[in-house]
Amino acid sequence: MSDHHTHAHGHDDHAHGHGIDHHDHMEAHGSLKDYSIGFILSVILTAIPFWLVMTHQLAPGTTKAVILAFAGVQLVVHMIYFLHMNSKSEGGWNMMAMLLTVILLFIVLTGSIWVMYHMNANMMPNMGNDGSAVHGMHDMQ
Predict the structure, then answer these.
(1) What is the pLDDT of residue 9?
(2) Which residues lie below 8 Å from residue 55, measured CB to CB, with a gap of 6+?
(3) Chain segment 101-126, per-residue pLDDT in tens
């Protein structure tokens, strides 16, 4: 019972200092290689949509869809390489957090596009329609 008690509370020889495996501890936080890959992917996933917008390579609707796709991929890259979320860590709870994040990402992105579309359509409904905004000025005279 004494042996079980010491291991249950973490008071064995390995927990008191130099016996801890630092390699396992560092893997939980990521390595320089993981951070470098994450950083490079983040830069690429930011630069491509920026280039598409600045050079007008695609139609506006297609550009919006591509930007949303790159934003989603970049979020997953950040969760994997910077937050170290995978199916094995934390007993699978990180995977559940990732799934919740993906669902919330979908809701926020689609909701934002929906709101912006309707704001654009309803804020100035007569602007851009074959001169109908001028028609309102004739009625005032």
Answers:
(1) 52
(2) none
(3) 889 988 998 898 889 888 888 886 66
Angle 60-81/93-123 helices, nearest 10 degrees? 160
Cα(122)–Cα(84) distance, integer angstroms: 43
The tally of CA atoms less than 13 A away on the side-chain side of residue 74 is 16
Cβ 49 vs Cβ 67: under 8 Å? yes
Residue 56: partners with Cβ closer than 8 Å, 6 or more residues away: 63
Token reading at 62: 């297609």
Nearest in space to 30 (alpha carbons), one of 79, 72, 71, 75? 79
DSSP-derived letter for residue 18 is: T
